[in-house]
Design a protein that fits this description.
Two copies of one chain form a homodimer. Chain A has about 375 residues and is α/β, with parallel strands linked by helices. Chain A contains 13 helices and 14 strands. In chain A, strands 2-10-9-8-5-3-4 form a seven-stranded mixed β-sheet, with helices on both faces. In chain A, strands 11-14-13 form a three-stranded antiparallel β-sheet, with helices on one face. A two-stranded parallel ribbon of chain A has the order 1-12. In chain A, α2 packs across α9, α5 runs parallel beside α6 and α11 crosses α12. The interface between A and B is large, with 45 and 44 residues.
């Protein structure tokens, strides 16, 4: 039955909930993207993005999904004949490999079982034997599994072998996990709009350090829409090369101002607490975490024996309006994922665990109902 | 500290949460209120309001709060020298008396202690001695105390004594409690936009049966803005006499369509369940209900000894973004109130009780945290 009063509680790892103030800013009258008014907004957003990326480097706003920014990283810093390492911990690690393969880059893959995280010694062992790689691609947090990787450590290893550039997919981690682009000397960091940024999908971001910007000038891989030479040139006049998602940029400005006011360190602490409460709540219902090193932006949970994980996701949304994510690819039906990203708070965790408990109970999983929410309250009360 | 990421969960008995779809309809371009486009909307809304009031009578949309519709009821059906009975069970019963007094109507008040409900025998005892009253004013649900009154029974008593008109304040009850205007032969029913109607404040509604419409023609109390003769005349051309809140009426149309699709009987059941879960959750934390006959649209709870009720409301909002209502007037600090109105669902109850538990714990009230939310889940799971 279609329920016109269904209240949607979005707990998925992107898109994430958007506040009404930000949503209403989307409804503002469109302005032209070659005028002074837009220029001012674009420049303000770019400055605020630097604050978020913890960088003095250039940050570009692209009108695309996060995958577009991933592709931009590949096609702007590499050249024909380059070799790259992919640290693959899940679906998005695989995506790096696929993009690189599409551009004919030779890939050395270090692949981990889903749920596992990058071991620095594995990287080191490979580089010890052969360090002729032009870049290392990795995920800060792997959204498909809920794992966090030690990108600071990865860069430290890379520095020992000729300072190989490290390209970080921070699509899901940005704003949710500590990330210091300059301090950690990360070379390229990419992200998207619909996760920690608290706005709808449609924009992506790419930050590059000076060394990488020089590479951009010379890179000979084919590109057009994602060419950062264009992006850089146009930004000098306060513009984007192609018509950008103007209204989504209105929303970006609103969201960035809110984020700045709240403070990024406070945000990190916020999600840390939400993730902790979720993990403990889940364990109190007798379930197991999936990630071997869980991040704070998405908690992945093993579906218990005898329960169909796709039903958990479906029924939880249909019955209680609480929308979580299931597992991707081989893990479909085997894990479920709760996000702690963007415009989410304690009460979202309470609802998430409440919805999970009610749904598991209806699906016949045996446990004492209420243990999960009680544990969540204990964490927040503690 | 101002928190720009505070997520507000509105659990107050008006205003109530408004869905994004309805909010965005407010942002539509204003249209002129004397044109065909607006006429169509006004007529459609009025038809849908009849469905909600369960009446074939005329229903008028006023641009005012619910109190405006209360005043409209008084000044349009009474005459100088008339006498009225007020069945006073709380702050809104008192409001009837104040409005009537302002127009010089002699009031016979049957006043109950807050938390108590109208006893039909009290009305009957008065009418037995003297039935020379031109109207009986009452509340269907008394928002200040969370009590429901038997308006069907009140009308049955009134009929035995010369069919005295019964004027019902259904501001908070409409859509939340069963109400059959025609079947129960209610004479006047008034309501507002910001409670069960799921739209922002700014509109009120008044439905009158044929006998009352005749009275409107002759009533000699002073009035202008709330004159229903004007309202009736203008409605014949699909208009309102004064410039209405056009954009709020856009929202009204959106909300009424959703309500019609969901079905009013389903709504009644929805709030019944939400109220039941709230009551049981509250009792599981060791608290007592305030209302002697609790309604399903607002649950009032006695603040436990040693706790300041105004702090509960304040801290719950400040710490957890969950906004409930405190007690009014003499009951300030002594009771707190949770609404189950409009665009609220099971997860709102979960959050409400979670917020209450966390706040009470911080305020030093001793109980085992988690008992309330567990009980709520049990009710929804049952």
């Amino acid at each position: 039955m279609k329920n016109p009063l269904k209240k949607l509680r979005l707990l998925t790892p992107g898109p994430t909930p958007v506040s009404t103030d930000v949503l209403l800013s989307l409804a503002k009258e469109v302005i032209h993207h070659r005028g002074d008014e837009f220029k001012e907004i674009l420049v303000e957003c770019t400055e605020l993005l630097k604050y978020i990326f913890k960088t003095e480097n250039d940050v570009f706003i692209l009108t695309s999904s996060g995958t577009g920014a991933m592709e931009a990283a590949v096609v702007n810093i590499l050249n024909k004949g380059d070799r790259a390492i992919v640290l693959n911990t899940g679906a998005f690690g695989r995506r790096w490999k696929n993009i690189l393969n599409s551009y004919g880059i030779e890939v050395k893959e270090i692949e981990y079982e889903w749920g596992d995280y990058v071991k620095l010694e594995d990287l080191e062992n490979i580089l010890k034997e052969d360090s002729n790689y032009q870049a290392i691609f990795c995920q800060h947090t792997e959204t498909s599994t809920g794992v966090i990787n030690d990108i600071k450590g990865i860069k430290e290893v890379a520095k020992k072998y000729g300072d190989i550039p490290v390209v970080v997919d921070a699509v899901s981690s940005l704003l949710g996990e500590e990330l210091f682009m300059d301090e950690w000397e990360l070379d390229v960091v990419v992200s998207g709009s619909q996760k920690g940024m608290m706005i709808p999908p449609g924009l992506s971001f790419i930050a590059l350090n000076k060394k990488m910007l020089e590479k951009v000038e010379k890179s000979n891989l084919p590109k057009f829409y994602f060419s950062l030479i264009h992006a850089k040139n146009y930004f000098e006049r306060g513009q984007t090369p192609w018509t950008p998602a103007v209204n989504t940029i209105f929303a970006l400005k609103e969201a960035l101002k809110i984020i700045k006011e709240y403070g990024i360190e406070n945000l990190w602490n916020r999600y840390k607490k939400l993730a902790q409460a979720t993990r403990e709540g889940v364990k109190a219902i007798g379930l197991e975490l999936f990630a071997k090193r869980p991040c704070n932006v998405v908690t992945s949970i093993k579906v218990p024996e005898g329960v169909d994980g796709t039903r958990i996701v479906k029924d939880m949304q249909n019955e209680f309006g609480v929308r979580i994510a299931g597992g991707q690819r081989e893990y479909k039906g085997k894990i479920v994922r709760f996000a702690h990203m963007g415009y989410m708070d304690e009460m979202d965790v309470v609802m998430g665990i409440a919805g999970l408990e009610l749904t598991l109970s209806k699906l016949g999983y045996k446990f004492e109902i209420g243990n999960g929410v009680r544990k969540v309250l204990e964490v927040f009360n503690g």
